């Protein structure tokens, strides 16, 4: 028989274990994501392509590791260097960039893996097609095709990362364009009251002044928005049609 205290303790442990995924998800949104996405629920299409990029990165990691082993057996230093470079890109840019939705890291990983490694892939394909020795064609073509598999994974992962970075940049533009809070009902600048409001503080999106006054605010407030105290990275001039 359990005492009332032990029963309550077991219930608390069970409830805490049931809430563990929610706590982990909340921690992911608040602490781990890029600051632009913290505290917000991600749109479905961003989560979808983030998950696809994670799968592509896993595929790329396995393929590059296998390629490194194959090139080591064949004692081909260039192939070893290319696969080591790919693994370093995954560690320092791809993995962290996709998990935290860091647009710059995702773009760097996507550009390099879809361009540099694709050149190596095309070179390998051309080498397969133009083998001159007929006796070695069958075996060498098969071997070279196997060695091309890591670069196919690099190309797939690079394209996925590039597409995710494009989605993130487009989402950022839409957020600034559609979700700009209007701080006053008047269309005149809240500072000088003589010019039209035409400038948005980026990334917070506050819009209440003209460009000249916004520039003065950016300089006098130590590059912080006077309304929310977020750092001002840039000023965006908006023209109303």
From TrEMBL:
Keywords: Membrane, Metal-binding, Transmembrane, Transmembrane helix, Zinc, Zinc-finger. InterPro entries: Znf_RING, Znf_RING/FYVE/PHD. It comes from the Eukaryota. Signal peptide: none annotated. Residues 189-229 form the RING-type domain. SMART domains: RING. Pfam families: zf-C3HC4_3 (PF13920). This is Zinc finger, C3HC4 type (RING finger) protein. The keyword RNA-binding does not apply. It comes from Tetrahymena thermophila (strain SB210). GO terms for molecular function: ubiquitin protein ligase activity; zinc ion binding. The chain crosses the membrane at residues 54-73, 80-100, 106-130, 142-169. One of its GO terms (biological process) is protein ubiquitination. Residues 1-22 are annotated as: Disordered.
């Amino acid at each position: 028989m359990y005492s009332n205290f032990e029963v309550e303790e077991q219930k608390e442990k069970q409830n805490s274990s049931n809430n563990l995924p929610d706590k982990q998800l909340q921690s992911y949104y608040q602490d781990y994501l890029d600051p632009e996405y913290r505290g917000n629920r991600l749109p479905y299409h961003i989560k979808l392509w983030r998950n696809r990029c994670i799968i592509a990165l896993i595929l790329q990691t396995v393929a590059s590791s296998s390629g490194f082993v194959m090139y080591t057996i064949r004692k081909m230093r260039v192939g070893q260097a290319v696969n080591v470079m790919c693994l370093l890109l995954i560690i320092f840019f791809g993995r962290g960039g996709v998990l935290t939705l860091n647009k710059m890291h995702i773009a760097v990983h996507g550009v390099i893996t879809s361009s540099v490694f694709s050149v190596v892939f095309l070179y390998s394909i051309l080498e397969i097609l133009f083998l001159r020795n007929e006796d070695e064609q069958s075996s060498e073509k098969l071997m070279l095709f196997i060695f091309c598999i890591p670069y196919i994974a690099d190309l797939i992962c690079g394209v996925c990362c590039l597409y995710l970075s494009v989605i993130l940049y487009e989402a950022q533009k839409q957020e600034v364009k559609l979700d700009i809070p209007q701080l006053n009902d008047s269309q005149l600048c809240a500072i000088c009251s003589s010019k039209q409001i035409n400038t948005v503080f980026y990334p917070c999106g506050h819009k209440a002044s003209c460009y000249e006054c916004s520039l003065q605010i950016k300089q006098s407030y130590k590059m912080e928005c006077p309304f929310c105290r977020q750092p001002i990275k840039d000023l965006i001039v908006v023209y109303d049609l």
